[in-house]
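User: For a benchmark we're assembling, each entry needs the component sequences followed by a predicted structure for the full assembly. Here are entry 17's components. Please fill in the structure.
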Amino acid sequence: MSELALDGIRVVDLSQGIAGPYCAKLLGDLGAEVIKVEPPDGDYTRRLGPFPNDEPHHDKSGLFIHLNANKKSVTLDIDSDQGRDVLDKLLDKADVVVESEQPGRMAALSLGYDDLKSAHPTLIYCSVTPFGQTGPYSSYKGNSMTAMALSGLMYITGDHDKEPLCTGGEPAEYFGALHAWVAVLAALEHRSNSGQGQHIDVSMLESLGCADEYNTVAYSYLGAIRKRFYSRHLIPTYPSEIFPCRDGHIVVIGGASGFPLMMAVLLEQPELEETPLFQNLWLRTFQWQEFEKILRPYLMEHDQEDLLTRAQELRIPFAAVLNPETLLENPHLRERGFFAEVDQPGVGPLPLAANLFRMSETPLRTGPAPQLGQHTQELTG
Amino acid sequence: MTGLPLSGIRVLDLTQVYAGPTCTRILSDLGAEVIKVEGLRRMDITRNFAIADNDSQEDYWNHAGYFLYRNGGKQSLTLDFTDEKAIELFKKLVPEADIIAESFTPRVMDKLGLGYESLRKIKEDIIMISLSGYGRNGAWRDFTAYGMGLEPASGIASMTGYRGGDPLRTGISFTDPYSGVAGAGATLAALVYRRRTGKGQHIDLSEQEAAIPVVGHALMDQAMNGRNPERIGNRSHWFAPQGCYRCKRSEAESTSGGGDDNWLVITIRDDDEWAAFCNAVGHSDWADDKCFETVESRFEHHDEIDGLISSWTREQDQAEAMHLLQSAGVIAAAVLNPKQVLFDEHLKARNFFDRVDTGDHGVRPVPKQIGAQFSAFAPDTARRAPKLGEHNKDILQGMLGLSDEELAKLEEEKVVGNAPVSEVPVALMRMFVQWPTTTFLGMSALAALEADYKQQLGIEDGNGDGS
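Assistant: Structure for entry 17:
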C-alpha cells in the first residue's frame, strides 16, 4: 500500500452540514484519520436527501455519504459530563479539530480554542461558519445563498431583466470547505516550522468573495457597476456562453483564434469570415442579437457531440454542458477514473466524486462513509 | 505572530489567466517566493483586462486591475520559450525551486522538454503541479479549454437557471478560482509529504473534475434514483420557502427614476423559522394557515408563499429587511451589487479588502484570496503586482549570475524584456483593451457608471492613506 500524504495526522471533525464536513473529508482523502463526532441523532445532513427510493434513513443520505466518505463515526453527547470525558480523550490525540457551530457556542461548552489551547498547544482548531467569528454579521445565520448574495456574485448571475440567480449546487459551502482545507494544510506546515498550533477562522462569505473575478475591480478601476447579463463576460471574449443545440446545450466560445475564420468554417458558411460581425469583436459584442441570428439556427440543426468534436478539431474551445446523468456516463471521466465505485454499506455500490486530483506518489483514498456511531465502540471503548 | 508557513519555499510559476495564478497567489500570500514567468510573445492576457481608468499610458499592461487581483506579491521574469536559450535559462532556475506550477494544455511542457520526468532529473524532489482544463489523460486531454466552458462541463450549469429555462453560468469563471484553491491545497499536501519523506511528486489537476463535487448530492440522486435535477431558480431541494424577493427602490433610484434592482434572499428551513418569519413581518396569520404548516405543504404552495413574501419585501429597504429577519433568527441577506460589496460593514470590519498601493495608480481595494484568518500569522496579502519583466535583472543576474553583456544580448534578441512583442501596434492594442463602458451601460450590462468613484472609495491617486 502506498504512503498517503497525511499519514499520521488525526482529525476530530465536530462539524455538521456541508462546508466543515467536506473540509474534513478532503483531509481524510489525503490519508488523515478523521473521527467524526456526531450528536446521538447524527449530523443533520443524515436527514437530508437524496435517499434510495426517497425513503429516509440516517445511513443512506446521498448528501451525507458524499460529504463524509473516509471517516469514522463516533456518537457522543458532548453536553454531558461523560460525553465530554470521551471527547477530551479524543482531543488528546488530535492534530486538527474542525467545527462549524455558531460563533460563541463552542466557548459556551468550554470547547472554544481558548479553552483548549493551553492543554493542547499544538492543536490546529479550524472554525468554518457562514460569516466568520467576528464582525457585525457573525451572529447571523447563513448558507450558500446568503454568501452568493453578499459577495456580489448573485447580483451578476442571471438575466439583466430578471431576478438575480443563485449558482446551483451550494457553491459557497464548497468554497468554504476548500479554503478551510487549504488553511489547515498551511497550519500543519506552520506547526512543523514553529511547533505551534493555532485557531483558523474561515468565513464562507469571504471564501466565495475571493472568487470575485472582476466585479469589484470594475468599480474600483473604472467606476462601473457590473450587472448580470446572461452568462456573458464583459472582458473581450464574446461569445462565451451556453446555447441550446439539437439534443441539449453547448458552450460556444470563440477563444483566441476562433474568429473570423475558424468559426465561419465550423458553421459551414465560409463567406461569414469577411463580414464585420466576424471581423470585429466589439461590434459582435454590441450587436450580439445579430450574431445570434446566424448562430442559433445552425446549432439547433446539430448535436452537442458533433459540435464539440468539430470545434475542438479547429482549436475552438467549445465545451459540453453536462448534467449528473451525462457526467456519470462521460467516457473521458471514466477513462481518467474520476468516479470511484465504493461499496456503501446498506446502500450498495455508489460512484463517488472522489479523485479531485491525481498525485503521482500519494494517491487519494476512496472509501465509504461511516454508519451512525459505527466506530463508537472501537474508539471510545 | 510568527513566520509564514511557506517562507523559504520558491515557486516557478508558468501559469496564466485565472486558475493557476489563484493557486500560486495563495502560496505567495502564505510566504512562498513566486517567480511568474511570462513570454514577451505570450504575456499573461489578463494584463489587458480592466486597465485603471481606461488610461492611455504607454505601458498599459502594467496597470490592469484583473491582473493585480491574482498576481499581487509575485515577481515577474520574462522568458520567451520560442527561443531555446530561454528554456536553458529556465532549466538553470529549476535547482533553485521547490515547486513548478503550469497551466498549459498537457502536451506543451513535454514538447518544451520541461515535462515532470525531465525536471526531476534536474531536481529530484521537485513538486510540479499541472492545472489543465480536462487533465493529463483521457479522450479530452488535448481539448482547448476556457473557464467559461468548464463550469458547464462540471455539471454546475445544468443546475443553474430559471425554472424552465436554459442552463446558465455564474457571472464569473467559476471553475477557475475553485480549481485554483484546490491546486493550492494539493501543493500544500505535497509539501507536507516531501517534508516527511524527502520525495517530490507531480500533481495532475483537471479543472473540470475539481468542481464536480459541488453537485455531489445530485450525482447521488442520479446514482440512487436515476433522477436528473430540474433547474429550480433560487429554490432549495431541501427547504421551503427559499427565494430571491424584490425590495423597494432605494432613495437614489427613486430620485433618478432608474434601478429598481434591490433584492433580498430568504431561506426558511423548518416550522420554527417559518413562524419566526411570519411574526417578524407582522403576519402571524400566515403562520396559522394550515396550507403552510409543514415543509411539504410549503413546497406545495411555494408560488403562493412567494407572492406573500414579495408583497412584504416590496415595501422594505433591502438592508433593513435583512437585519430585521436575521434578528428574528431567519436566514436572509441583501443581494449586494459589486459597489455595495466594497462598502459592506461586515467585510470592512474583517478587513476583507486590502488597500494596495499600486504605485502609478495610487491605492486600490483588493479582496483577499484566502477566506481564512489565522491566529498565528498574517498572510502577506497587500502587495502590488509586478510590472512585466520587473525582476529580470534580480533573477538572471542575482540568481544565475549573468553578466551585463549577456543580459543585454538577451534583451536585444527579445528573449527577455519589459514590453510585449506583438504584431499589433501598441496604440491600437491600447484602444482595444479599453473598456467601452458607456456602450456596456446602454446595453444594460452595467447598472451604473460613476465618474466620482475614486472620491467615494477614498482612493484619490497618490493618496496612500485611504479613507
